[in-house]
Amino acid sequence: MLVILEGPDLCYKTTIAIALEKFLHSSKLITSGGPPRELSEEQIDLWSKCRLDMFYQLYQSLYMLNKYGIDRVRLIMDRFIWSHAVYSELVGREFDLQYIKNYDDKISKLSINKLCVLTASPKTITERYKQRGDYKFDDKQIIKAVDLYKKYISQSKLPVKYFDTTNKSSIEVLLEVIEWVEK
After folding, report:
1. pLDDT at 168
2. DSSP-based three-state secondary structure for 135
3. Tell me: the pLDDT tens digits for 75-107?
4. Cβ 145 vs Cβ 121: under 8 Å
5. Coil, strand or helix: which one is 175?
6. 129 φ, ψ to 5°?
7. Which of 108, 122, 107, 118 is nearest to 177 (CA)?
8. Above pLDDT 90, what percent of the chain?
9. Taking the domain 2-182, which CATH number applies?
10. Of 172, 157, 169, which Cα lies nearest the Cα of 4?
11. By the 8 A CB rule, do 3 and 50 touch?
12. Position 39 pLDDT exceeds 80
């Protein structure tokens, strides 16, 4: 089983991923968050290429597990190809949309997978940034990120469910995610 958690920053993805890893037996958490802020443009390009290679290797592993019926292994992805597309576009970097569509197509053919999109209102995300003392993105960028996630994920062939974290605690969202993943 592959459980992918996607969505904008500060919507509980990592918190939920860590809790899911503990809750689901035989699970492995794989994180693929964004590049460290202090990298140069050249280093960010190299980081992106390494991430894409990691996605390919992950797909190959999932394919083999699926092919031989080893479905008791559960992989939890904290961000994946859609975040790559969203944040590349947000910072003005080019990316290959066809690459993302190809991965989505391949992953959708695996027997068991779920795409959980954790989101919140742009106002809530802005408030969470302020509470954290982080001003990485302004309101317009946050709105654009939320819209880009909707745009890219709406094209996915995977089973998708949105979880709005605007007025919920991470525990409440975790229980909803577990209920859907376990179906």
Report:
1. 94
2. coil
3. 777 887 788 788 778 877 777 788 778 878 877
4. no
5. helix
6. -60, -45
7. 118
8. 24
9. 3.40.50.300
10. 157
11. no
12. no
Is there a contact between 12 and 118 (Cβ–Cβ < 8 Å)?
yes
**What pTM value is reported for the model?**
0.80
Amino acid at 173: V
Q: Which amino acid is at 129?
A: Y
Within 10 angstroms of residue 24's Cβ, the number of other Cβ atoms is: 18
**DSSP of 48-113, one letter per residue?**
HHHHHHHHHHHHHHHHHHHHTT-TT-EEEEES-HHHHHHHHHHTT----HHHHHHHHHHHHTSSSE
Among all chains, which residue has been given the structure tokens 């939890």?
76
The encoded tokens of residue 53 equal: 């290679």
How far is CA 180 from its chain centroid? 16
CA nearest to 149, candidates 121, 178, 113, 111: 121
Q: Which residue has tokens 């809750």?
A: 23
How far apart are the C-alpha atoms of 64 and 154, rounded to whole Å? 27
Residues 7, 117 contacting (CB under 8 angstroms): yes
Tokens of 79: 């961000």
Q: Which residue has tokens 């993302």?
A: 100
CA 122 → CA 12, 60, 89, 140, 146, distances in Å? 14, 36, 18, 9, 7
Position 5 pLDDT exceeds 70: yes
Which residues neighbour 161 within 8 Å (Cβ) at sequence distance 6 or greater? 114, 115, 116, 117, 180
